[in-house]
Amino acid sequence: MIISSPHIFSFALASTRAMGEAGQYAQMLEACEALAQGTQDGARRLDVAALLAAYGFQSQAQAICETVLSSANAATSWRATAQLAALWRDGGEHAKARHGYEQLLEQWPEQGVLHHSWLTSCEYDPAISDQARLAKAKTWGQWAVARAGGMRARPRLQALGQRPLRIGYVSADLCQHTVGFLLRPVLEAHDPKRVSVVAYHSGKTKDWLTEALAKCCTLRDVSALDDLALVEQIRQDQIDVLIDLSGHTGGTRLNALAWRPAPVMVSWLGYFATTGLPCMDAVVLDEWHAPAEVEPQFVESILRLPSGRFCYRPAPWAPETVSPVPSAKNGYVTFGSFNNTAKLNDGLLDIWAQVLLATPDSRLVLKWRTFNDEGMRQKVSQAFLNRGVRAERIECRGPSFHADMLQEYADIDIALDPFPFTGGLTSCEALWMGVPVITWPQSRVVSRQTLAILRQIRLPELVAQDAQDYVRIATELAGDAKRLQQMRETLRERMRQSPLMDAQTFTHEWETALRSLYADQHAKQSDSERHLSSQEARPMPTIKINDKEYDTEQLTAQAKVQLEMLLATEQEIQRLQTQLAIAQTARNMYAQALAQAVV
Fold first, then answer.
1. What is the residue range of 587's domain?
2. d(Cα 239, Cα 169) in Å, to the nearest integer?
3. Which of 480, 431, 482 is nearest to 452 (CA)?
4. For residues 366 and 355, what is the distance between their CA atoms, to the nearest angstrom?
């Protein structure tokens, strides 16, 4: 049946999404197939592909994208190719994803979402160097600033004194998402005498966690605002320090930050590399994420928090107790990784295969939504088979509800951290469930997440120095049943007593760092104004106008009046030119949106 009405299609798509949310995957697949066959509209078909990808059905999503691409117009062609590139990335096919994004940006350089997706994809790709990732981020930063009409002046800072610092958090993930989970204990611990908080939620998802966050601050739904409207809202709120929690991840509003809507701007929590934005003042890390040699990877200054980059609180539905060590019952050790399959790569699979081959009869359980896809399961099993590991030793599990996923750690003895993109919240959850995590930090910041967590809870012995050390630590721990049992029983208390779970101390340090950063910028502003004032107090000996030089001391009173009027007029011209640049940028954005809407 052909669905011609866009309203009926939207309703049917929403109903199909509800099936996925309920875990009714067979019904969802059937409904998606009917929707894709029931429309000839490329954009609607791509909506179906996006839904399939969101629940891990890679093969079906890819087939739709390729069909659309074969007969696409310009408006759907770039989108179909972008969705294919994301599918390749999520399947660990980084060379294909890299090639896809490079082609996309050559053809459609003005599509901002492509820049963001490409930069995020670079973090997963082990073949892209630190220097190349920095260069790509800087290129985007220059592009974003140009779209904002050039580098904006820093808004004037108001003296802080004893008043609360007005801070704003911007994110598309103020919901049941890693960012939402990690932000909640901080919002709840904020001292209203030190900070006043506004949160700007730019995402479409609103859930129980959104409501919980809204109880801790002023939460604004800005999902319907364009960049200029968001900038105006932030300015009206008189934010002192604006904190971006998305970086280049999905739903980012970094383009709006290129307009410099707040006097001080900071990148934190939801991203793991430089934003590339030259007006971003600082990125918030810690000593483990950012040793001195990491600094050249950032355009921002690095603000290191003493206790760590974030604090962790278990989900409210996390099991109250940990399960027994599964190897005691099974008679063999089970390794596991519940990380995003975009983190898979050939070098990683080589090392994991070595761990399995060095640990007789051991198993490996991998869990992510893409393992809903039969083709993905077969590809991973074949990859291990090619490395000498029998297929029956590899188990690929699809998605489940969060509470059920946490229960599945009962099947895991030791977690293997991927690299170079390591676990963050995933590593915290494994440790909370009594499962030790083996990690290998490298040069990029995202490879050092689990290192930082293990340092916070004082388990440096799980941190490898190189590939061989990774295999050694994993195999030695697998052979030490007593140590595995002891870690299973003590990891939770070790975490509770560590800075990782001390929200009060972390938040106090966070507030202090933000207030100090703002005070430093205010002091620089005051010094600059004093310098300008002293310069202005000096009489201008000469001035050149229309290639003619005048001695200001020799001008008549009437000429000096004319000079003042001329200088005031030039200042007004500069102001109007700035306003014109802003208006032209807005016009171009609206024209582009109109062109996409009418295709």
1. 540-599
2. 10
3. 431
4. 15
pLDDT in tens, 213-235: 999 999 999 999 999 999 999 99
Count of structural domains within the chain: 4
pTM, whole model, 2 decimals? 0.88
Assigned token pair, 406:
């946490």
**DSSP result, 146-189:** HHTTSPPPPPPPPP-TTSPEEEEEEES--SSSHHHHHHHHHHHH
Q: Which of 408, 424, 362 is nearest to 389 (CA)?
A: 362
Same-domain check for residues 455 and 366: yes
* Rounded-to-integer distance, Cα 425 and Cα 157, Å: 35
* In-domain check, residue 196: yes
**CATH number of the domain within which 208 lies:** 3.40.50.11380
Contacts of residue 599, Cβ cutoff 8 Å, sequence gap at least 6: 73, 74, 75, 76
Q: Do 215 and 237 fall into the same domain? A: yes
Q: Which residues contact 466 (CB under 8 A, 6 or more apart)?
A: 440
How large is the angle between the packed helices 112-124 and 130-147, nearest 10 degrees?
160
Within-domain flag for 134: no
Co-location of 495 and 506 in the same domain = no
Residue type, position 465, single letter: Q
**What is the tens place of the pLDDT at every residue in 449-469?**
999 999 999 999 999 999 999
